[in-house]
Amino acid sequence: MHQVSSPQIHPPGKDSDQSIVKESLKLKNRWSGHSMDRHPIFDIIANDSSSSSDDEVEMIIRFAIEEERLNSGGGSRPRRRRTFIRRDFVQATERIFRDYFAEPPLYPPNIFRRRFLMSHSLFLSIKFMLEATEPYFVQRRNAARRLRLSSFQKMTAAIRMLTYGTTADLCDEYMSIGESTAMKCLKKFVKAMVSNFFKEYLRSPTNNDIARLLALGESCGFLGMLGSIDCMH
Asked: Which domain of life, per UniProt (predicted)?
């Protein structure tokens, strides 16, 4: 087994004296252009040189050097530069529209229902509701007059995360939405859905609702079943 040798401590000698002199000169040179004539540490060494050992002097010098390094910002962590990605929001919106909302769309309605867990008409109804009640989903222009994210992008990102349980980062490649923005879209979408549809869809079912769901289940071959039933698959 490989053994790690402990550091050896050498007693002060000529090498230590030379090291102290070098460190002292370095420190003195650093402070030569300072507003003070010299670092206060030199006064301490001069006044107490008769009783201080070489180890104590070296420790004081190293402490002063470390203090100077921290004061100059040498001890702070370097800032990471944020990488700017120039996303084409218009192209992403056109891609989503061409795939699902054009006439004819690239993907048929059954694939749309599978990927969005709703019909095409329901998606558009929710889109119009969000644009009317939540300003965040209204497409705007930035200071350079470039179009920003569209409601198609924001809704698709939120619904894909809810449908597939995927991470926000995976929304970037297809919808051109960064991770933090995708998470914001999801939170805004859920909050708007709850506030606008709570009374109608998040209440307890009435007797008419139960009868309708039982009839729907029976027509699909599920007798006495209540829950989410979709006979269109």
From this structure: Eukaryota
Distance of alpha carbon 216 from alpha carbon 144, whole angstroms: 53
Cα separation, 86 vs 163, whole angstroms: 28
Strand residues in the chain grouped as ranges (E): none
Q: Are 151 and 137 in contact (CB under 8 A)?
A: yes
- Separation between Cα atoms, residue 194 and residue 177, nearest integer Å: 23
CA angle 123, 124, 126 (to 5 degrees): 65
Closest Cα to residue 171, out of 83, 90, 92, 86? 92
pTM over 0.85: no
Is 65 within 8 Å of 26 (Cβ atoms)? yes
CA angle 165, 175, 154 (to 5 degrees): 75
Contact between residue 133 and residue 196 where contact means Cβ atoms under 8 Å apart: yes
Q: How many CB atoms lie within 10 A of CB 200?
A: 7
pLDDT digits (tens, 9 = 90+) for 70-119: 666 555 566 677 677 778 889 999 999 999 999 999 999 999 999 999 99
